[in-house]
UniProtKB/TrEMBL annotation:
Annotated ranges, domain Subtilisin inhibitor: 47-131
Family from the record: Belongs to the protease inhibitor I16 (SSI) family.
Compartments where found: Secreted
Name under which the protein is recorded: Subtilase-type protease inhibitor
The species this protein was found in: Streptomyces beihaiensis
Signal peptide: 1-34
Domain of life of the organism encoding this protein: Bacteria
InterPro entries recorded: Subtilisin_inhibitor, Subtilisin_inhibitor-like_sf
Major subcellular site: secreted
Keywords from the named record: Disulfide bond, Protease inhibitor, Secreted, Serine protease inhibitor, Signal
GO molecular function, one term: peptidase inhibitor activity
Amino acid sequence: MPLGTATTKPRGTLLAAAAAACALLTTTAAPVLAAAPRPPAGSGDWVHVTVQHGERPGNAKSALLRCSARPVGDHPHAADACRELTAAKGDISAIPADSDAICPMIFDPVTAVAYGMWDGRHVSYAHTFSNTCALNAATGTLFRLDD
């Protein structure tokens, strides 16, 4: 091959790689979204949260959080999570990150998915973090589903 000649992969190979990546992303997130129950009727501000550990379906935990005068639902940290969501006006990405958290650089992916209603508007959130520590540092107690 002459000097200065770049080698590129055939266009079909790049398209096939992109299609495979999209298929992988949709197959890992689909089980998390498919497990979501129907929204509660007339419950005011509420969020259904799911945490999917790893890359295999079936390692998910979910909880329903209803924030009213007294937080209810099966979320283990309901009062704290409602307080954080109220301060962020229902915007999950606006929950302040814990700047003091020191997380290990271990890749153990975890995907957080949430949907619900807050102040009469739909709320949705989905993000994959490198590990549980990074998830908790970024989202407070909302996705802490272990007691």
